[in-house]
């Protein structure tokens, strides 16, 4: 069976890697996202407090109703009874009205906070460098963007309001308990510290398990995202069972952690229920003795029991809120881990303005390494504006790394890289990258229409400009052949288009952007001869008047380049035209002749 390196799961992480601290101040930071909705939030809290206050009146009226019914046996005056019932109905109606208002207002706050937090997190992720994304799985990032943000939604709205509400209800119920029967109150309140202590102890354990569950599910989702994103590779290697097993193992781990969480929740609920209702049973027994002794009326006993139930309910509610806050601490910790990430491509506080660049590119003793592995060593050359430079060399020579330094996907670790005589680190990233166009070997199209993908190079372009770019890229003919023309949906990653069609759409996108510096990273290596000819013609149009770096798999396609740089082991070992390098008899000629013989053999010209 096909084997691959195992992916890291939470359990497989380096035990020496520190866990992020679950700092309660994270919640204050989270609640800052509710500031734009503070008016709605305050109104929702007020509605909650009014509803809670009205609920405190209900037990008093209910007790009066009991006394009016049972202590006046034989009386025909139903006025007090009628008035009490009407007052109860009014209290219920107002409580329901304010309850509905608080639910609507706070749901608006929660939805707004979640939308803003997701926007902020996604925007921040887009600002991070490629280095960050090489160390993090897309599935894990997506999980934090979706499920983790949803976890904190209740805390940012409903839970906080309920905290106020339950606190008011608890304080009010305790005060009214004492006023109704001081001796019964002491018996009831004795159990509250035990309930709170249980909630704190079990809540801490629940928080840890909840965070572990989030991590485990995120790891499984990351595996699933990788498998689905590369489903063709999975199916070509008949590795469906391998991926099913991998994802199934992740779900099994998540299931086991979920069982631990459920056991803790069940233990907490059972313990709280026993303590609450056990206390009520004792209160009912003792209160019944007081009623029999004439020290308490039946109505007051019922009132006291309802207040006691409210105390138990509010303590249980506060416990649930406490657990929500514990889970939110774990989720917000994962969110703020990302928000606190800083790009390893720092920008100047006072960037040098860069309008329309000339396109001159200078490598001045540039060195670069991934971690401890040197990739480029002391690379120096100057490319005048408008020159076409081909980069060739064996696999791993550093060609792609070199061109990725120009738009600052990575920063040099030694020397300097300049555009128009200025270090690229002195420009704003957005200004620099606006001057650079990239057409890679594996073209990424987004799942919208062809027109939307071309317009990605310049969102404010007119339909006429989009079509002009497509014509220049030799793409208009196949686009208009589709029934829906430019509105044709390309599918995820452009799967509905052929390789040559995707490349021409990408070239049209680059043409519309109109960059001064162009990078072609093996843009025709994966195409058949017919598609390559069409794409090459489009590339010739694209390269006109631009500083162009061409990485070519087929050396025959770069014979006419004005300049060829030959890289080997991270160094520029040859520099010149095709004819000069062939005459020099160095690495370039060896590579060219080797490839030429392979092409001859492929055509059957060699025996």
TrEMBL record:
GO terms for molecular function: ABC-type oligopeptide transporter activity; ATP binding; ATP hydrolysis activity. Keywords: ATP-binding, Cell membrane, Hydrolase, Membrane, Nucleotide-binding, Transmembrane, Transmembrane helix, Transport. Its EC number is 3.6.3.-. SMART domains: AAA. Residues 361-594 form the ABC transporter domain. It is an enzyme of class 3 (hydrolase). It holds the Pfam family ABC_tran. The chain crosses the membrane at residues 39-66, 86-109, 159-178, 184-203, 266-286, 301-322. This is ATP-binding cassette domain-containing protein. It comes from Deinococcus metallilatus. The lineage of its organism: Bacteria, Thermotogati, Deinococcota, Deinococci, Deinococcales.
């Amino acid at each position: 069976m096909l084997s691959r390196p195992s992916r890291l799961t939470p359990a497989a992480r380096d035990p020496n890697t520190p866990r992020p601290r679950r700092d309660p101040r994270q919640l204050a930071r989270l609640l800052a996202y509710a500031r734009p909705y503070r008016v709605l939030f305050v109104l929702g809290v007020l509605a909650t407090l009014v509803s809670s206050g009205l609920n405190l009146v209900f037990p008093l009226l209910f007790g009066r109703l009991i006394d009016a019914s049972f202590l006046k046996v034989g009386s025909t005056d139903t006025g007090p009874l009628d008035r009490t019932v009407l007052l109860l109905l009014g209290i219920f109606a107002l409580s329901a009205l304010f309850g509905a208002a608080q639910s609507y207002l706070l749901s608006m706050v929660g939805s707004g906070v979640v939308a803003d937090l997701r926007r902020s997190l996604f925007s921040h992720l887009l600002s991070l460098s490629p280095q960050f994304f090489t160390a993090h799985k897309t599935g894990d990032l997506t999980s934090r963007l979706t499920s983790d943000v949803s976890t904190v939604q209740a805390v940012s709205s409903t839970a906080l309001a309920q905290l106020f509400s339950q606190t008011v209800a608890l304080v009010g119920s305790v005060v009214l308990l004492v006023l109704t029967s001081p001796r019964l109150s002491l018996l009831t309140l004795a159990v509250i510290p035990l309930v709170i202590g249980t909630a704190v102890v079990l809540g801490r354990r629940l928080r840890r398990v909840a965070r572990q569950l989030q991590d485990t599910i995120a790891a499984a989702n990351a595996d699933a995202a990788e498998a689905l994103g590369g489903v063709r590779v999975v199916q070509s290697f008949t590795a469906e069972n391998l991926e099913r097993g991998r994802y199934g193992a992740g779900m099994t781990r998540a299931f086991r952690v979920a069982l631990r969480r459920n056991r803790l929740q069940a233990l907490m609920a059972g313990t709280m229920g026993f303590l609450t209702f056990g206390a009520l049973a004792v209160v009912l027994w003792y209160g019944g003795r007081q009623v029999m002794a004439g020290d308490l009326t039946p109505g007051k006993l019922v009132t006291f029991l309802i207040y006691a139930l409210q105390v138990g309910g509010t303590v249980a509610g506060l416990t649930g809120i406490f657990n929500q806050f514990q889970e939110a601490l774990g989720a917000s910790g994962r969110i703020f881990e990302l928000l606190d990430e800083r790009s390893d491509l720092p920008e100047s506080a006072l960037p040098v303005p860069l309008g329309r660049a000339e396109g001159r590119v200078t490598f001045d003793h540039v060195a670069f390494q991934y971690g401890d592995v040197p990739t480029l060593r002391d690379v120096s050359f100057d490319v005048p504006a408008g020159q076409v430079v081909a980069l060739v060399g064996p696999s791993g020579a550093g060609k792609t790394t070199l061109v990725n330094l120009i738009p600052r996907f990575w920063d040099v670790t030694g020397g300097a890289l300049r555009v128009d005589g200025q270090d690229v680190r002195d420009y704003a990233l957005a200004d620099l990258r606006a001057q650079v166009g990239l057409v890679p070997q594996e073209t990424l199209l987004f799942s919208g229409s062809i027109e939307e993908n071309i317009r990605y190079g310049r969102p404010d372009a007119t339909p006429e400009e989009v079509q002009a770019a497509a014509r220049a890229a030799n793409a208009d003919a196949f686009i208009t052949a589709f029934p829906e023309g430019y509105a044709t949906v390309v599918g995820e990653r452009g799967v509905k288009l052929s390789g040559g069609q995707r490349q021409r759409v990408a070239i049209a996108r680059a043409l519309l952007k109109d960059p001064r510096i162009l990078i072609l990273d093996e843009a025709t290596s994966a195409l058949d001869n017919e598609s390559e000819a069409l794409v090459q013609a489009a590339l010739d149009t694209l390269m006109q008047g631009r500083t162009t770096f061409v990485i070519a798999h087929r050396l025959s396609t770069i014979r006419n380049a004005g300049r060829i740089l030959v890289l080997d082991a991270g160094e520029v070992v040859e520099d010149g035209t095709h004819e000069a390098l062939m005459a020099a008899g160095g690495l370039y000629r060896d590579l060219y002749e080797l490839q030429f013989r392979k092409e001859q053999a492929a055509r059957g010209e060699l025996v």
